[in-house]
Design brief:
This protein is mainly β. The chain has one helix and 25 strands. The radius of gyration is 21 Å and the shape is elongated.
Length: 364
């Protein structure tokens, strides 16, 4: 598949990445400053030294050489004019940072950097600036950054767009900090600068594509991420609701109330489906849909589960099938593969088709 990561923090938590949450900076998922959907991620590096940072890591199997990233960013007010870069994302070969994208508070313009130390390559004096943009990003304003990266010692390239307009570019040239011409760890977050010059950041609508698969294999675009919560019981209600009432009311909490609200079952083939909230009226095109849910076992062992999407009266089982081994209250976040084309047909999803979907899960 081409899409490797999608998150708008719509689950009310920073949990959709497959790696870790690193750093000493404070962070929270909140509703007050989102770009789309209901939530955004606030990173509170504040007026602190560059060593204070917060980032999430996402591992990329297959060692892709080329990647496309979208991330919406909102800059808090800077308390100073440090020349040290405040990084937003890094493209890494495990412990080696190949490239970083940063915004120094001296002029709030995009910078492209090669190398560096620290999780985001943010340690002053350890990175090399390759290029700078000309667009000044105003504080207290949302911007959508789109980044294309090709990691190579000789023919590497970086292109950064701001709200769809090409701004900072580099290459062809050296964009690799080691002999490994690929990215296997992507990091997104923020760091402080120097004492008195830090600021808070908000991030939203993050998406990551590689160049494989023939779908979502190029620029992500300026869209957003929406989570359609259950609003009614659907066509299948095989599982048992904890409270004995409506099934959907046990699984519609954000963040999930894993201890006191859930449905449960242990029978192969048992399926629970739900009608979903509609998309906002402003949405007029769809790149992809995917199922997202959490699951745990009641006792040690294993069981298999998968997501289900119901379209036009037909149930379509997700890939992959997930083997659950974690025991309640330790839930695992599970996602189906992105579905780019209308199930049972061809072409992109329409908002009306998405609004008519049911979704849920089944025991395999």
């Amino acid at each position: 598949m081409a899409r490797k990561l999608t998150t708008g923090f719509e689950l009310g938590e920073v949990i959709e990445h497959n790696g870790t949450l690193v750093g000493t900076g404070a962070n929270s998922v909140q509703t007050g400053m989102k770009r789309t959907g209901a939530y955004a991620w606030r990173i509170q590096v504040g007026s602190v030294a560059f060593g204070n940072y917060k980032a999430m890591t996402h591992t990329l199997p297959g060692n892709p050489q080329e990647l496309y990233v979208r991330a919406a960013v909102y800059l808090g007010t800077s308390a100073g004019a440090s020349t040290n870069a405040q990084m937003l994302m890094a493209f890494c070969d495990q412990a080696t940072v190949h490239l970083s994208i940063g915004i120094p508070p001296t002029d709030n313009r995009i910078r492209i950097y090669r190398g560096g130390t620290g999780e985001l390559g943010h340690t002053p004096g350890t990175y090399t600036e390759l290029a700078a943009g000309s667009i000044v990003l105003n504080e207290l304003t949302w911007y959508v950054l789109e980044v294309y990266v090709k990691v190579s010692n000789t023919v590497g390239q970086v292109i950064v767009k701001v709200n769809g307009v090409t701004d900072a570019t580099f290459g062809p040239g050296d964009t690799a900090s080691s002999a490994n011409e690929y990215t296997d760890v992507f990091k997104v977050g923020a760091n402080g600068a120097t004492v008195g010059a830090g600021r808070d950041y908000y991030l939203d609508d993050i998406a990551l594509n590689d160049t494989t698969g023939g779908e979502s294999d190029s620029w992500v675009g300026l869209g957003g991420v929406y989570f359609l919560v259950p609003t009614a019981d659907g066509s299948s209600s095989d599982w048992t609701p904890l409270g004995g009432g409506n099934h959907w009311e046990e699984v519609d909490e954000i963040p999930a109330d894993d201890d006191t609200s859930y449905v449960y079952d242990d029978t192969a083939g048992a399926k629970d489906l739900y009608e979903l909230a509609n998309l906002p009226a402003l949405v007029n095109s769809i790149n992809l849909v995917e199922t997202v849910f959490q699951a745990a076992l009641s006792e040690a062992g294993s069981n298999d589960i998968r997501g289900v999407i119901r379209h036009s009266g037909v149930d379509y089982s997700d890939t992959p099938t997930h083997t659950i081994t974690n025991v309640h209250p330790n839930y695992a976040l599970l996602k189906g593969d992105p579905v780019y084309q209308v199930l049972g047909g061809a072409g992109a999803w329409t908002p009306a088709q998405v609004n008519a979907l049911e979704a849920g899960f089944e025991i395999v």
